[in-house]
Amino acid sequence: MTTSSSERRVALVTGASRGIGRAIAKALVRDGLFVVVNYVANEAAAQQTRAELGEDNAALSQFDVSSESAVDAAVKAIGEQHGRLDVVVNNAAVAVDGLLMRVKTADWHKVIETNLSSAFYLSRAASRLLLKAKESGRIINLTSVVGEMGNTGQVSYVAAKAGLIGMTRTLARELASRGITVNAVSPGFIETDMTQQHVQGDARQKLTAQIPLGRIGAPEDVAEAVAFLASPRASYITGQVLRVNGGLLIG
C-alpha cells in the first residue's frame, strides 16, 4: 500500500492524459483526492498530467478500457497498491463519425466497447472496492448532449452515450442501499482535440450561435461538475444527469 494515498480518497479517471480527463484529475487533486491517471497509448501526455498534478498526488495506470481483462487487472492492482478506491470516473471515449449506411461494423464495435462497455467493465470490477468505501463511493459517467438529443452522423457515439445514461440510472438504484452514488455528467461542445477535429470553420460558428451562453465550453467547466458529484456535498444526489452545455439543451 502506498503511503501517499492510503489515508486519502482515491479516484480513478479514465482517459486522463489530456483534455477533459486531465482537467477532471486536476480538480479532484485540488479537492484533496489521490488520482490514478489512466491512459492507453500517449505516455508522454500521461507523464505531463502527472507532473502537473504532482507526483505525490497521482499515479499512472496504462490499460485499454475496452479490454475486460485489462480493466480487471488494473483495478486489482489499484486495490493492492493503494488499499482503496473511492471514485471512478468513466471518461475515456472515441468517436468514429459517419452516416448509418457508411458505418463499418468494426468502427461500431470500437466506439461501443470504448465508450459504453468500458464503463460496465470498470464499474463491475471496482464495485467491491467501492462497497468498502461506503458513503464516499462514487461512480461518475461522462455522457454527452448528443446522447440526449441525437446527432446526424454519430450513430455509434450517440448510442454509446445514451446507453451510459441508462446504465447510470440502473446502477444508482442497485448501489444506493450501500451509500454509493452513481451520476452522469453530460457535456455540450467542449474545447478538446476531438471537438477541434470534428467541428471547424462555418460549422463551428453555426454551433456557437446555437449555444445560449455564446461560447464553446472549457474542460474545466466539466471538471467542476465532476468534482462536485465526487464530493460529500453531493451525497444525496444519485441517478442524475448533470448537464454542462451552455444551454444548448434545456428541459
Structure description:
With 251 residues, the chain is of the alpha/beta class. The protein has a single domain (10-243), classed as 3-Layer(aba) Sandwich (Rossmann fold), CATH 3.40.50. Helix content is 48%, strand content 14%. The chain contains nine helices and seven strands; from the N terminus they run βαβαβαβαβααβαααβ. A seven-stranded parallel β-sheet has the order 3-2-1-4-5-6-7, sandwiched between helices. Strand 4, helix 4 (105-133) and strand 5 (138-142) form a beta-alpha-beta unit. The longest helix is centred in the middle third of the chain and has 29 residues, at 105-133. The termini are far apart. Mean pLDDT is 94; it is low at 1-5.
Could you provide a short overview of the structure?
48% of the residues lie in helices and 14% in strands.
| CATH topology term | Rossmann fold
Please tell me the total number of domains.
Answer: 1
Give Rg in angstroms. 17 Å
Total number of β-strand segments? 7
Number of H/I helices: 9
Euclidean distance between termini CA atoms: 46 Å
Order of helices and strands: EHEHEHEHEHHEHHHE
Percent of residues in beta strands: 5-15%
Largest sheet: 7 strands, parallel
Shape descriptor: globular
Q: Considering the protein shown, what is the CATH homologous superfamily?
A: NAD(P)-binding Rossmann-like Domain
Label the CATH architecture: 3-Layer(aba) Sandwich
Residue stretches low in confidence (pLDDT < 50, at least 5 long) are 1-5
Instruction: Determine the fraction of residues in helical runs and give it as a percent range.
Output: 40-55%
Q: What do the pLDDT scores average to?
A: 94
Q: Any idea of the CATH class? A: Alpha Beta
Oligomer: single chain
Broad structural category: alpha/beta
